[in-house]
């Protein structure tokens, strides 16, 4: 079931979205060589508590994970791309780090993710990978207009990946959200234009293009959560929460985020 949100409810989701975006900007700026992933996790916990927000990840226990997830942010390094469980790992120059964060404030959820390169030793291939997911996200957002189809969004995202030479896994992708982190519909990162649900004002979606430099297959760590590229190639993941409105797509989690540095 898809719940259409009112303009006031979308505004309330945008309040949550601003906090999510600000938190990601803060933590990504702190992700320097020598910083332990658990430092970022504990800072995220402090920010969540100080804001009076509720983590969508803490105690999260879906069918695919070895739940419950007892952290408030997903931190995925290099070949890890989704559901990265924070652990005792010290970041190194040139690491590719994805931060994925979702909270609820006053009953309304927002979800976003960014991928950054730690330090100064950026591999141009990693920069190109990250930039491709950002372009794909922009393309998917541009396609999220009233009267369009969900397949238009998926096709726009997937076309960017294909044009850049990346392979797309359609198993994990975007999703609806609002009162909870995961609602209908599923938004695949590849699809066929003109197919699928008709997009209507009031739909709120998390769009999240992700892929690897190599394989489109995933393997799971022994922690039961962290998903990595099957061939060990580096990965990237970019995500915004958006609303479909009469005036066009509205980004609810906007924030400036560095790629390198």
Order of helices and strands: HHEEEEEHHEEEEEEEEE
Helicity range of the residues?
A: 25-40%
What class, by secondary structure content? alpha+beta
Write down how many β-strands occur, each being a DSSP E stretch of 2 or more residues.
14
* The CATH top-level class label: Alpha Beta
β content, as a range? 15-25%
**How far apart lie the N and C ends?**
43 Å
Q: Calculate the mean pLDDT score and round it.
A: 95
**DSSP summary: helix tally:** 4
Give structural attributes.
single chain; 261 residues; alpha+beta; Creatine Amidinohydrolase; 5-stranded antiparallel beta sheet; 4-stranded antiparallel beta sheet; 24% strand; globular; disordered C terminus; EC 3.4.11.18; metal ion binding
Provide a concise account of the structure shown.
The chain is α+β, with helices and mostly antiparallel strands and 261 residues long. It has a single domain, classed as Creatine Amidinohydrolase, CATH 3.90.230. The strands form 4 sheets. Strands 7-6-8-13-14 form a 5-stranded antiparallel beta sheet. Strands 1, 2, 4 and 5 form a 4-stranded antiparallel beta sheet that branches. A 3-stranded antiparallel beta sheet has the order 3-11-10, with no helix packed on it.
């Amino acid at each position: 079931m898809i719940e259409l949100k009112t303009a006031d409810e979308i505004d309330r989701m945008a309040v949550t979205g601003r906090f999510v975006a600000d938190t990601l900007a803060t933590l990504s700026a702190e992700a320097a060589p020598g910083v332990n992933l658990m430092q970022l996790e504990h800072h995220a916990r402090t920010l969540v508590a100080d804001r009076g927000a509720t983590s969508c990840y803490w105690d999260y226990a879906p069918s695919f994970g070895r739940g419950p997830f007892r952290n408030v942010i997903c931190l995925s390094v290099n070949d890890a791309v989704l559901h990265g469980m924070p652990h005792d790992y010290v970041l190194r120059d040139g690491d590719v780090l994805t931060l994925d964060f979702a909270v609820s404030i006053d009953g309304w959820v927002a979800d976003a993710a960014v991928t950054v390169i730690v330090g100064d030793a950026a591999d141009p291939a990693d920069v190109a990978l990250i930039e491709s997911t950002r372009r794909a996200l922009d393309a998917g957002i541009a396609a999220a207009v009233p009267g369009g189809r969900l397949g238009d969004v998926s096709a726009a995202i997937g076309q960017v990946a294909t044009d850049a030479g990346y392979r797309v896994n359609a198993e994990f992708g975007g999703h609806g959200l609002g009162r909870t982190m995961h609602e209908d519909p599923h938004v695949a990162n590849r699809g066929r234009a003109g197919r699928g649900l008709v997009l209507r004002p009031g739909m709120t979606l998390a769009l999240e293009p992700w892929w690897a430099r190599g394989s489109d297959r995933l393997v799971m760590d022994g922690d039961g959560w962290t998903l990595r590229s099957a061939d060990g190639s580096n990965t990237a993941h970019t995500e915004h929460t958006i609303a479909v409105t009469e005036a066009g797509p509205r980004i609810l989690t906007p924030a400036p985020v560095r790629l390198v540095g």
